[in-house]
Every structure is written in C-alpha cells, then in structure tokens.
Amino acid sequence: MEGEPKAEREEAARQDQAASSRRQPIVIAHRGASGLRPEHTLAAYELAIEMGADFIEPDLVATRDGVLIARHENEISETTDVAGRPELAERRIAKWIDGAEVTGWFTEDLTLAEIKALRAKERLPFRDQAWNGRFEVPTLGEILDLVRRKSEETGRTIGIYPETKHPTYFRSVGLPLEEPLVEALHASGYKGRSAPVYIQSFETGNLQALRRITDLPLIQLLDVQGGPYDLAGRTYQEMATPEGLAEIALYADGIGPSKRMIVPADPSNRLLEPTSLVKDAHRAGLEVHPWTFRSDERFLSPDYQGIPELEYEHFFALGIDGLFTDFPDTAVQARSGR
What's the farthest any 2 CA atoms get from each other in the chain? Predict the structure, then answer.
C-alpha cells in the first residue's frame, strides 16, 4: 500500500507467495462424516476416512472416571439415548457450564461403563435417523486405534484433530483434559510440529498450557460473536485483527475461524466481500482452517445456487489451508477439481 514502508511491502509479498505455494488444503471430517452418520461415532470416522478425509475431528470430554470420550458437548441428551434410560433418570440435573445454565445428563457424572451402555443418535432432525441406536460412544483410545488401523489399510496417513471441550470447566471439577490427551497422543507416537495432529480449542489458557507440555501443532478457534470463556473482556473479533493474530502466533500454529469471519453474509445469508483474515493470518505465520461446511441446502448461501461444491471452490480460491466439513466426500471432490 502507498503509505506502507518498502520492507513491510516486501515481507507481505513474500508471505503471500509462501501462502500460495502451500500444500493442497486439508479436508477435516467435522465430527466424522457427520452429515451421513451420527456424529462422533467410529462409523462416522471410518466413513470419513473411506471418503478421503485427511483428518478426523473428535471433540473430547471426560467421564466420571477420567476417560476421554468423543462428544460435542458434555451434556449428551441430544446425541445419545440417555433420556430414554430409566435407570439414569435421576442423573438429570442443571449445571452452569461456561456461564450458561444447562440441564440434562453430563458425561462427568457417568462412568465409562455407563456411557458404553448408551447408543448414539442423529442430532439434527432433518438428517437420516435410520442409524440411531446402532453405535457406541467411542473413547479417544478407540479412535486412535481406528486411525492407526485405517492408515495401515489405506496406505495413507490419516490425521487426528481433537478439540478440548470446556477445558476450564473440566479442570474445575478435577477432570483436566490436556494432560491425558497429550499423554495418549505421545504414547501413540505423535510428536513434533510435523505430526499429523492438530489440537484445537476456543479457549486460550489451555492452548498456552498445552504449548508448555507438547510441541504438537495447536489451533486457536474463533467465532463471529463472543470471546474465549477464560479471557474475560476479549472478543474473537479482536483476536482476528493483525495485532491479535500476532499474539496467537506466540502459542499456536493456526486459527480455526468461523467461515463467516472470512466471507461474511447479510441477514438473508447473501454473501458480502471477503475480509483480509486469510492474508492477515498467513502474514502472522498461521494456518487457516475455517468451519463448518455443510451440503444441506438450509446451510448454504443462496449465492451458491444449492451447489455445495461452489462454496468449497470459493474458499479454496481465497487461500485457506484446510476446512471442516460434515460431508468430506464433497470437499474431496471439489478439491480434486481445482
């Protein structure tokens, strides 16, 4: 730009060139192939791998006996049949989780044996319900075993992209997520920045704590609204500025922003001009993995005319390094057509 010093312009150009020459964007199976199977089940993860996903994403919470399991939330009435289990009826309670009151059944109140007696179900009513009741809730260990086995079977490296859910809350109840996660990953041979692993979180303190105990890649998640629960008064929008990104780069290797932080939309979901977030993040040395891409027409902007491939192509052209999708087959197909 006209008022920008020459050295800064040259550095910006160098960063842009480096970003454009990066490897092809990775496809991250959001909760597995969650558009086609109940989320966070071994069946969803295995289908995603068969569809060509590069990484599978387990969200991690803890059981009462300290075992890490894959659920998007520690309240599990939306994703399991727990509400229909009379033997667990008295476990339904209200709690404050990250400043909000939540009522239901919580993983930290159930043992692994009790969790294993439950069966997963489809969370969204407009998606296929035929798979309800067929699958268990998997442990992190079972997911790591699946990744290892499928990597051997397919001859390609399958990555794992775990998220620590409500880490401040879990530490407050004596069930910290970070140490057992790192211990499991290190024991499985995942070490170093080049390992096929990313650990992600919407909070900041636990990522900084993770950086002190592991050199595995870390991702700071960002949303359009709100801010990290553990960083009162700070918003995700502030963290997405060049100054905020420079701070993130001190402890993380990338960002996982809502896709609407890259391509905003108006109230009718019509697309607006892209922001500079991808370029700003690359200049800070950060990878960019936006979320969440879905083929369901209700989630697509009308500008894509009901064709989900157009959304992938749009974001690939903006230089992202990867993306989270409920439909990894569509993402892989769109990427192959670049």
Answer: 70
- The answer to whether residue 268 is domain-embedded is yes
Q: Is residue 143 part of a domain?
A: yes
Q: Is there a contact between 222 and 258 (Cβ–Cβ < 8 Å)?
A: yes
Span 22-58, pLDDT tens digits: 589 999 999 999 999 999 999 999 999 999 999 999 9
**Can you tell me the distance from the alpha carbon of 201 to that of 256, in angstroms, rounded to the nearest whole number?**
9
Between CA 311 and CA 307 the distance in angstroms is: 8
Is 97 a domain residue?
A: no
d(Cα 333, Cα 266) in Å, to the nearest integer?
28
* Number of structural domains found in the chain: 1
Give the tokens for residue 232. Answer: 């009162």
| Listed residue (19, 6, 55, 7) closest to 280, CA to CA | 19
- Domain of 324? 6-73+137-336
For 168, phi and psi rounded to 5 degrees? -65, -45
Q: Percent of the chain, pLDDT > 90? A: 92
Q: What confidence tens digit (pLDDT) does each residue in 235-254 have?
A: 999 999 999 999 999 999 99
What pLDDT score does 1 carry? 41
What distance, in Å, lies between the first and last C-alpha atoms of the chain? 30
Query: Phi then psi for 26, rounded to 5 degrees?
Result: -85, 150
Q: Hunting for tokens 């409920």 — which residue is that?
A: 326
Helix (H), strand (E), coil (C) string for 1-23: CCCCCHHHHHHHHHHHHHHHCCC
Yes or no: say if 144 and 157 are a contact pair by the CB < 8 Å rule. Answer: no
Residue with tokens 């997963």: 120
Strands 163-164 and 254-257: unpaired
- What pLDDT does 23 receive? 81
CATH of the domain at 281: 3.20.20.190
User: Is 121 domain-assigned?
Assistant: no
Q: Which residues of 292-329 are buried (b: 16+ CB within 10 A; e: fewer)?
A: bbbbeeeebbeebeeebeebbbbbbebbbbbbbbbbbb
- Are the C-beta atoms of 310 and 304 separated by less than 8 Å? yes
- Please state the rounded mean pLDDT for residues 90-95: 98
